[in-house]
């Protein structure tokens, strides 16, 4: 169960090598979180991440999880929940894709969509149902400001995040009153390995800043968290810009 400050004692991360997820896990472990499950494709990076959390005092375990292998999700994630209650699930996996390549190779675009949306719908529902059976817990979903309005530069990735965001909002409404809290996190450009070499967007942030915002959102039981907060105003304005004008903006 969570402590008086809203800190989960147990955490399941879907996307166990995500820099944002690991920054969040480190921050929570420094508070009170003691059991961490890192779910992801087996790799030295996944094992190294678990070892780092163990060094910080957590009982960190790894579980083989593939977002694209939806037929395995029920069994894989079900086993985690049989080990004990999970106070927080952080859905953090996703791929950015390559817009130019993905437009020319539709199967690559489909992989982006299946990972970011289909895989999230499958694993998100399974975890949500498990949390509902517990009667408590938080499901934190990493969305993106890219899902707020499709941009020419990354509409394939953006559309997958738009679907994820809408799904998470609806799931939060469906779980209202069950004891399960769903929080959607919308970071802007995050300086990470995923964005290395890309031109930095205005109001860029870091994995650590996103982790801090997630922790604050958990304490407040927020339903939506923008990182940085100023993006809420920026995107509200951009959402209403006429399309002919929007096409000409350097966004």
UniProtKB/TrEMBL annotation:
An annotated Gene Ontology molecular function: oxidoreductase activity
Keyword set includes Secreted: no
Pfam families associated with the record: adh_short (PF00106)
UniProt key word Signal: no
PROSITE patterns: ADH_SHORT
Top-level taxon: Bacteria
TM stretches of this protein: none
Keyword entries, A-Z: Oxidoreductase
Signal peptide: none
Family stated for the protein in its record: Belongs to the short-chain dehydrogenases/reductases (SDR) family.
Protein name: Decaprenylphospho-beta-D-erythro-pentofuranosid-2-ulose 2-reductase
